[in-house]
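Bench notes, bay 3.
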Amino acid sequence: MRPFSPFSIKTKLGTLVVVSVFITTGLLMVAVRTSTEFRFITVFSVIASMLITQFVAHGLTAPLDEMTTVARAISDGDYTRRVRAGRRDELGDLASTINLMADDLEAVDRHRKELVANVSHELRTPIAALRAVLENVVDGVSAADPETMRTMLKQTERLGRLVETLLDLSRVDNGVVPLKARRFEVWPYLSGVLKESGLAAAGRPGLLSGSGGHTRNDVHLHLDVFPSGLTAYADAERLHQVVANLIDNAVKHSPPHGRVTVRAREGEAPGSLALEVRDEGPGIPEAERHRVFERFNRGSANGGDGGTGLGLAIARWAVGLHGGHIGVAESSRGCRILVTLPGSSPASH
């Protein structure tokens, strides 16, 4: 039950009845003292009561009409419409409830669209790599030997893992996504990530150089891991998302025949990892650095790159699950993204 309020509809209706009674009583007293016929008093009383009732009724029905219009717009999928709130009666409470419902529906719709965009973004790379291998086999460029089939099998398995991973995005805002963290050697892991991304990988442990075939073939990739036996504690699949998206972003913003450096070192804490990806592109203006990890933010330095603006947002999400940190670090040239991962599970901190 709503507590008594001088602005409630019950109070307003009660006031309307009381005013109507006072008007009728006043007119009757005037009729008795002036010997006016009661039929005229009755007509005046009815007219006055109707005018007051019309005024009060308009104040009650007008917001109801607005709520009906907004509710119909919401049912048609327009979640941007809102009811003007400001009344202090039951209709004001109803308006606030409708607006809250619209906010929730808009958030659900936005999350649904983001999930679809995330799926499209994350599945694009392995599908493109698998298609390239199949086209080479069909065109006779490559033979369907066991090595080629193993490459396609890895991409297919990665697609399956990505589907499971991307489904977790729908639960990010509602709970904790479990991590399958383990300790592994950084050099073979990163070189494997680059190979799966379609980048040529060759060289000795600690130094990897090659030409990028990821989204461009004119970018030189340099992998620097020290010491050669460096290890990290992380969920390998989540970290794969981080590295792949950072490299993809760096390659896209690199100048012709530019250089992208992936550098891994021991972190400040025991067992932790400091990973950075640096390019030679135009860099990120300092005023925009706090926004580069937002979803659908594609930056303005290059007028947008035609992507969905999800890569860095996904990287931040995956790093956050590990209890680590990702950010834009200072650099004399290009853009430098620094990732730090703790040496143990986030639950142990």
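Next record in the batch:
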Amino acid sequence: MGKKIKKIGVMTSGGDAPGMNAAIRAVVRTCAYYNIECVGIYRGYQGMIDADFVKLDARSVNNIINRGGTILKSSRSAEFKTKEGRTKAYENIKNAEIDGLILIGGDGTFTGGMVFYNEFKVPCIGIPGTIDNDIFGTNYTIGYDTALNTVIEVIDKIRDTASSHNRLFFVEVMGRDAGFIALNAGVGAGAEEILIPEEDLGLDRLLESLKRSKRSGKSSSIVVVTEGDKIGKSVFELANYVEENLQQYEVRVSVLGHMQRGGSPSCFDRVLASRLGVKSVELLLDGKSNLMVGLTNNKVTTTLLDKAVKGRHEINMELIRVSDIMSI
């Protein structure tokens, strides 16, 4: 059992995600509930190195549950990857009398937390906040549900113009090495094909599928592509390839980009962030550390940070089968 926790630092790091503010709010208000001081760390690990701290109380987080982005800002810190940078961060944490840290972000954020804990024994709890949903140890990450709904809304609009002009649209969504957004949004928006990193569809099968769609009487088609798809071509190269080989199609490309990260969080993400925020503070107060909080089968659970970083959140292959059947 470590020393009694009297002051907790909270930060957001890596890519922003809708619901991060709801998580900050939950951490701050849970600290207030237990009469613990709370300090906001601006700009993630870089703010820790620069001692960019602000005291937060229950009223500091009024009216932020509905806001996208993060009021604590986010950045990636090359300096924190050095021993000197981390030592400087530790000195600032110690001088501010911060006894434990709550880190909201993805695997890069958690890796930083693990290294920091191993070197300086500052207790850390991770809250998964990333639209990619690619963190092991939780069914859902904060921001994923909102991003999905944003993508669905945009694809619905694209379909209107695709049908009006008998066009084939390639829609690129975020996801880096994980196809969670593409697969779920593709099924939800009724895409004819979904290209994800976890399954190599291959160009021949893609062409065959589009030919089949055309033969079955479809006048327009939507193909959802993850930015890290295994076919190995950019979405523009893919579009050119299809246009050259299937001249009956007029092809257009839409790259959704960072609009997927913005916007007011969904009710699901607000509730998830609130539940995980409360649990993260309570774990620190119970003397726990080096854990990530997550949601498994609608229960708040914990996973070792090491496992959360190294494990792989598997895609639901059943959805690929459903997508194949629905695209008939």
